[in-house]
Write a sequence for this structure.
C-alpha cells in the first residue's frame, strides 16, 4: 500500500509513538515483511524476527524494543507493533462500505457487461470487453483487466486470512491491499480471491480458473496457468507461468512453483516445485517417486504375509 | 425446536395417531435423538434404535410398534414415525419464503452494515456493529452476534443434508433448527453453514473461518477456533475451543474434537481427537505416527527391491 | 445443440470454407466427439483423432486436411477446426446477457418460489412447485424440473472448463449446451453445475447434492444419487443411479460409475467403477484392498526396524 510521502514525525504522531531517526525521514507506504520496498513501514514484534525486519528493504520499522537503528532507516517504538501497524494502515485506507450496487467511483471500460446482482466497490477499475456474470462481487480498489470473464457468485477481494492469536481473541491484520486480475483471465463460478494484506494478489494474463477455486492473500499467479475446480492456494505463494493444477489440489502458504509445473489432482503441496516438474500426493513429492511408492504399497500386504509365514 | 406447552392429545390429533399415556401429558418441543431434552418429542422407526429412543431424555416417542411405555413418558403410534415427525415440526414451524431483501421481522442491531444484495430472512437477529458483505444470505430464524464479519456470497442457514432413503425417493428430515453465530466471529466468502435439523448449529465466540468452509447441521464449534479455506465439517460434530484445521480438512459426521487440537491440511478425520493432539492423513491418525508411516513408505520401494534381489 | 435442418453449402459459407460432399447434405446440429449423433457436425484437428471423428456418428466433419470422405458424410475443410466450430456454434447460439433479474423469455411453472436476488436467464424453464432460495443463478437455456429445491448462492449453468492451449493463449470451446435438473432434485448452497459444451449436463430425478458440490460439463448423473459436501465431479462423467459419494470426493473427467457404487470420503477416483462397488483412496481402488494396504502400512515402520535390526 502506497501513500503520499509523509514524514516520520507525522506518522509517529498518529499513533502517539516515540521514534528514532530523522523526523523528516520520508515514508511512502506500508507493507508486511514479504512485500517490503524502500520507503515502506514494516512491523516486527518478536526478537526472533528483529534482524529480518531491520535488514529488510523497509526503511521504517515499528518495533517493540529500542534497538540500534540501521543507517538511513528509522524506528518507531510501540509496545504493540501489530496493532500500531493496523492503526496506521486504516488511517490512510479507512474501511468503506459502498451502499451502491455499482459504486459511482468505479471506472468501467467500454463494452463491459455487468449482469444483475453484481456488486462493484469503490475505486474498482474494469477494463474493456469484460463480462461479469450475475452476483459477482468485486471489493473496493480491485482492478480487473480487459477481456476478462468472471462467472456467477464469485467473490474478488475478500479479506486476508491473517490473524494474530492473542490470549482471548484473534486480531486481524487489516487488509489494505488489492486484487489485480490481468487481461484475458477466465474465472469460474463461486471462486474466492482474497486481497493482498498490504500488497496485491495477482492473477496473470490469460490464466484460467475453474469453479470454486480459492486464492489466498498476496499470492501471485503467472500467465496462462490452468487450475481445475476446487483448487485451494494459500496466501503468499508465487506461481509461475503455464502451471497446471488439477482438481482439489491444495497449496500451503509461501510456496513457490516455477513455470510449467503440473500438480496432479488432490495433491497437497508443502514444498517448492522447480520448472517443469510433476508432483503428486499428500504431502506431494515428485510424481514418479510417488507412483513408485504407490506401486510398492500395493505389494506390501502380501509381502508382510510372506515375511511372517517365513518366520513361522 | 421449542413450542408452547401442548398436550399429548392435541399433538396426536394433528397426525391422527393413537397414543399411549396420559392425554394431558405435556410436550414442549421436538428434537432428533442426538439433541433431545425433557419435554421433547423424538421419533424412532427401527427396532435397533427402540431402546435408545425410549430411554433417551425425550418424554414422548413417536414409534411404529406398540411397546411398553416407560414411566412418566408417552408414546405416539404411527406407521411412519419419520414422516409423522416431519408433519408435526412443519405444523409448528411452517416453511416461509420472505420476498423482502431484508425481512421486516428481522431485528437488526445498532451500527450494522448490510451491503447490497444481502438477504435477511424472517425473525433473523443481528447484533451491534456486525458487517455483512455483499450477497450474504441469512435464512429465517438464524442469530448473528455482535462485531461479526461475514464476507461476500456466504450462505448461513441452508437446510440439513439429512435424508431417509425410501425405495423410490429420498425423504428429507425437515429442517426446523437454527444457526447461531456468536460475537466476534469472522466468516470468509462463499462459506456454507447449515441449520440444525431440530436444534442449533453454533459457531463459538471469536472463531475464524476462511473462505469456502462448510459446516454441517447441528455441529457446534467452540471459541477461538481457526479453520483455513475449504475445510468441510459434516453434521453433528462437537468441536472444542482453540481447535485449528488447515486447508481442505474434512471431518466425518458425529466426531468430537477436544480443545486445542490441530488437524493438518487435507486430513480426513473419522475418529475423535482428544485435547491438544495433532492429527494428519486420510484416514487421519496422530501426526507423529502418520509421519513415521510416510517416512517408512518412502523406503518401501528400495526395501522391496532388496528383498527380491536377495531371493534371486 | 440442435439447429433447424441446414445445408452443407450454407454452413460452409458461414466460415468461408471449402467442403467435400453433396452441397445439399443436411446438418441438424453440432456436438463434440463424445456426444455426436446423426446429423451433427463434429470437428477434428489432430491426425491421431481423424479416424475417430470420421467413423463417429457425426455426419459432417470439420477437418484440417483433405482426406477421403466416408460414404454418406461430408467434410468441411478449415485450417483451424476448433475455431471454425466455435464460429458456427456461436452463429446459431449467440451469447446473450439478459439484464433482467428474471428474463421475460423464461417459462416459470405454477407455485414456483423465486426468492430475492435470483437470476433466471433467457429461455430458462422451471417446473411446478420448485423453490429457488436467494441469489441462485440459472444461466440461459437451462431447464429445472418440478419439486426441485436449490439453496442459496448456487450457480447452475456456468461455462465448461474446456480450453485448447495455443502458444500464447487458451482458446475456449464455446459453451452452447444446457443443464437439465430433473424432478425432485435437491441442490445445496454454493454449488456449481456447468453446462454441457454442446450437449447437456444432467442431474437425474430425486438426486441430492449437499453444499459446495461441483459438477463439470456434460456429466450425467442418474436418479437418487447422494453426494455429500464439497464433492467435485469433472466433465463428461457418466454416473448411474443410487450412487453415493461422501464428502470431498473428486472424480476425474470421463469416468463411468455404475449403479449403487459408493465412493468413500476424500477419495480421488481415476478409474471406472462397476455396479455396487465401494472405492476408497487417492488414487481410489476397491475399498477392501485399500483398507488392507492401510493396515499393512501401519505395520511398516516396525517391520523396517526389525529387518534392519536383523541385518545388524
Amino acid at each position: 500500500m502506497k501513500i503520499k510521502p509523509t514524514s516520520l514525525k507525522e506518522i509517529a504522531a498518529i499513533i502517539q509513538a516515540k521514534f528514532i531517526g530523522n523526523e523528516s525521514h520520508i515514508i511512502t507506504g506500508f507493507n508486511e515483511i514479504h512485500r517490503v520496498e524502500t520507503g515502506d513501514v514494516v512491523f516486527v514484534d518478536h526478537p526472533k524476527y528483529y534482524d529480518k525486519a531491520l535488514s529488510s528493504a523497509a526503511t521504517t520499522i515499528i518495533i517493540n524494543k529500542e534497538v540500534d537503528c540501521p543507517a538511513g532507516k528509522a524506528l518507531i517504538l510501540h509496545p504493540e507493533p501489530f496493532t500500531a501497524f493496523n492503526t496506521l494502515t486504516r488511517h490512510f485506507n479507512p474501511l468503506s462500505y459502498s451502499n451502491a450496487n455499482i459504486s459511482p467511483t468505479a471506472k468501467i471500460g467500454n463494452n463491459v457487461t455487468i449482469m444483475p446482482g453484481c456488486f462493484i466497490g469503490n475505486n474498482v477499475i474494469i477494463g474493456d470487453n469484460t463480462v461479469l456474470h450475475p452476483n459477482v462481487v468485486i471489493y473496493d480498489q480491485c482492478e480487473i483487466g480487459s477481456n476478462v470473464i468472471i462467472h456467477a457468485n464469485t467473490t474478488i477481494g475478500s479479506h486476508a486470512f491473517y490473524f494474530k492469536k492473542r490470549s482471548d481473541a484473534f486480531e486481524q491484520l487489516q487488509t489494505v491491499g488489492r486484487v489485480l486480475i490481468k487481461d484475458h483471465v477466465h474465472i469460474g463460478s463461486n471462486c474466492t480471491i482474497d486481497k493482498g494484506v498490504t500488497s496485491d494478489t495477482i492473477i496473470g494474463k490469460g490464466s484460467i480458473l475453474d469453479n470454486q477455486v480459492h486464492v489466498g492473500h498476496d499470492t501471485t499467479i503467472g500467465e496462462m496457468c490452468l487450475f481445475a475446480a476446487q483448487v485451494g492456494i494459500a496466501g503468499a505463494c508465487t506461481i509461475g507461468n503455464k502451471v497446471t493444477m488439477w482438481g482439489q489440489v491444495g497449496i500451503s502458504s509461501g510456496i513457490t512453483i516455477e513455470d510449467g509445473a503440473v500438480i496432479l489432482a488432490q495433491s497437497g503441496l508443502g514444498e517448492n516445485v522447480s520448472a517443469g516438474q510433476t508432483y503428486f500426493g499428500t504431502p506431494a513429492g515428485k510424481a514418479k517417486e510417488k507412483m513408485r511408492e504407490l506401486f510398492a504399497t500395493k505389494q506390501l500386504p502380501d509381502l508382510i504375509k510372506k515375511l511372517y509365514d517365513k518366520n513361522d
